[in-house]
Specification:
The chain has 272 residues and is of the alpha/beta class. It has one domain: Spore Coat Polysaccharide Biosynthesis Protein SpsA, Chain A (Alpha-Beta Complex), CATH 3.90.550. It has nine helices and eleven strands.
Length: 272
């Protein structure tokens, strides 16, 4: 809990057996987390078995308050068929709301983003500074320092510039997987309208900006290593096209040229 708000960490997992324990241990070190929800997207390894053990074992690094270890409740959900990264997130947020989360923080189980920022991100939401907070790899120059390939960095900067222009926003990046949301914000978003692949991330942020909600950012160290999840150049290109299409649709709907279920209604004639 933080300021009487229930903190739920969601982990969209896929073949995360090797890193899940470490990620969970680091989440446990943050003494404010009440529940961890792990959604496995039909992994081919032992991710589910590992996840189910976490609820029965103490964290490697116990955090104690009044001599009691802070061990979050663990909920494990498995997709019988692979639904994609966006589909996994839809399940994560739905389950978090069903379990009465006040603040939901997505932490990737591959340890690429440090869970040490959980208290900072939660406090920004609980103190009503922003209903959405992103962990930015760009602020502080952590992307290249952490080993991000130069082509991904250039791709990130180009997409962010284009999306800022089309969205009329000033974020340092749109492509981080480290995100926190208030319950009230999640309940407003038409997430089921979004795609099930990586384009989900951009569509979700577009929907948030459409509501007029502000998005905060914190500087986030990140590391790239063999077991960290990553998408190929080809899939990155597909993702980039999806981001630009979402941003362009947003701008056209703002101008009233088009209509979309994601971005409200317009009196103009064309339906997206």
């Amino acid at each position: 809990m933080y300021k009487n708000k229930k903190i739920v960490v969601v982990m969209p997992a896929y073949n995360a057996e090797k890193t899940l324990q470490q990620a969970f241990n680091e989440v446990c070190e943050q003494s404010i987390v009440d529940t961890v929800i792990i959604v496995d997207d039909c992994s081919r390894d032992n991710t589910v078995a590992m996840a189910r053990r976490l609820g029965n074992e103490k964290c490697a690094n116990e955090v104690e308050v009044d001599n009691k270890a802070i061990i979050p409740k663990v909920i494990v959900h498995r997709h019988e068929q692979n639904k994609g990264y966006g589909g996994n997130q839809k399940s994560c947020y739905k389950l978090a709301l069903e379990h009465e989360a006040d603040i939901v923080i997505m932490v990737h189980p591959d340890c690429q983003y440090t869970p040490k920022l959980i208290p900072a991100m939660a406090s920004m939401i609980a103190n009503e500074l922003h209903p959405c907070v992103l962990g930015s790899r760009i602020l502080g120059g952590y992307a290249l320092k952490g080993g991000m390939p130069i082509w991904k960095y250039v791709f990130n900067r180009f997409l962010t510039l284009a999306m800022n222009i089309l969205f009329g926003a000033k974020l340092s990046e749109y492509h981080t997987g480290y995100r926190a949301f208030s319950r009230e914000l999640l309940e407003k978003l038409p997430l089921e309208e979004n795609m099930n692949d990586f384009a989900f991330d951009a569509q979700m942020l577009a929907e948030i900006l459409w509501t007029g909600a502000t998005i905060g950012e914190v500087s986030c160290p990140t590391v790239y290593f063999e077991d960290a999840s990553s998408i190929s150049f080809a899939r990155s290109c597909t993702y980039g096209i999806g981001c630009l299409k979402t941003a362009l649709l947003f701008r056209l709907c703002k101008w009233g040229v088009m209509r979309s279920k994601k971005f409200g209604r317009s009196s103009k004639v064309r339906e997206c």
